[in-house]
């Protein structure tokens, strides 16, 4: 039920205030935003002219509570392109509403960002995937959304986007093609796949029966993030790229003895972050090759 109490804590005015706060403190005007998944904060290593804001210092921003999520917004340049990195994201299981979880995406939109690259760590359900592989997300299943945990529930603010956004093309086909070309050029093709990501709320990892169900439903990997951010990004007309690092194989078999844990997820992420960074650096340098979309969803058209 929608009441004042559970109404959106991130109104357009809240977003505007945060955006103006940031724009008045940085000269960077990024067109690309990158969300770093668990253990993937190292993706900012190649950024020059860095300017970092701790989340706790930014008005209205949530703070990171999960190990492997540093909690900083990093502005800078990669190959001359202005970008902004979320070094650490927010999750439903931390107790944040999905409105808070996705708040930074709307800030990026209001700052003038056009493309968002969302990364995550996930468990591989597809039996062909190996630990350390990269999955280019081609589609997702919003499992919490089926149960009403959805970032767009509540009054719709048309300044961000339309009431009933289409999600059949949430992950830009052109950006996916660009990344597949880049990974081929880098010689990574053997461990890069396209696939479907399924979001669960977490924080527990899946039971065997749940994992089997997700696999039958068509999920190639499972994780606890990304989908709300992508949904809000698509709602406000951002171009989306999603990259998932397969940090563990999800067990579909009761005889499987290995037990997944967050430390292992972080360890694999850190091991493979360099590879993902090479992909993203080239992607940032070349993303202008893909035409900017005609943003028909969002009437708030430019940075302030
Ligand atoms: O932020 P992401 O989706 O990369 O984090 C994954 C999902 C959980 O937060 C955590 C489990 O180890 O990693």
Q: What do you see in this structure?
A:
Belongs to the PNP/MTAP phosphorylase family. This protein is of the alpha/beta class and 304 residues long. The chain has a domain of 206 residues: Nucleoside phosphorylase domain (Rossmann fold, 3-Layer(aba) Sandwich), CATH 3.40.50. It is 28% helix and 22% strand. The chain is built from 8 helices and 9 strands. A 5-stranded mixed barrel has the order 5-8-7-6-9, surrounded by 4 helices. A hairpin with a 2-residue loop joins strand 3 and strand 4. Helix 1 crosses helix 3 and helix 5 packs across helix 8. The radius of gyration is 18 Å and the shape is globular. The protein starts with 11 loop residues before the first helix and ends in an 18-residue tail after the last helix. The N terminus is likely disordered. Bound molecules: ligand LQZ7MJT6.
Name the features.
304 residues; 22% strand; alpha/beta; Rossmann fold; five-stranded mixed barrel; binds ligand LQZ7MJT6
Radius of gyration: 18 Å
| Assembly annotation | single chain
Major sheet: size, sense and barrel closure?
5 strands, mixed, barrel
- The whole-number mean of residue pLDDT values reads 91
Distinct helical segment count: 8
Low-confidence residue ranges:
1-7
CATH architecture of the domain at 12-120 and 134-197 and 225-243 and 276-289: 3-Layer(aba) Sandwich
N-to-C SSE string, H for helix and E for strand: HEEEEHHEEHHEHEHEH
Ions, cofactors, ligands: which are bound? the ligand O=P(O)(O)O[C@@H]1C[C@H](O)[C@@H](CO)O1
Helix-strand category: alpha/beta
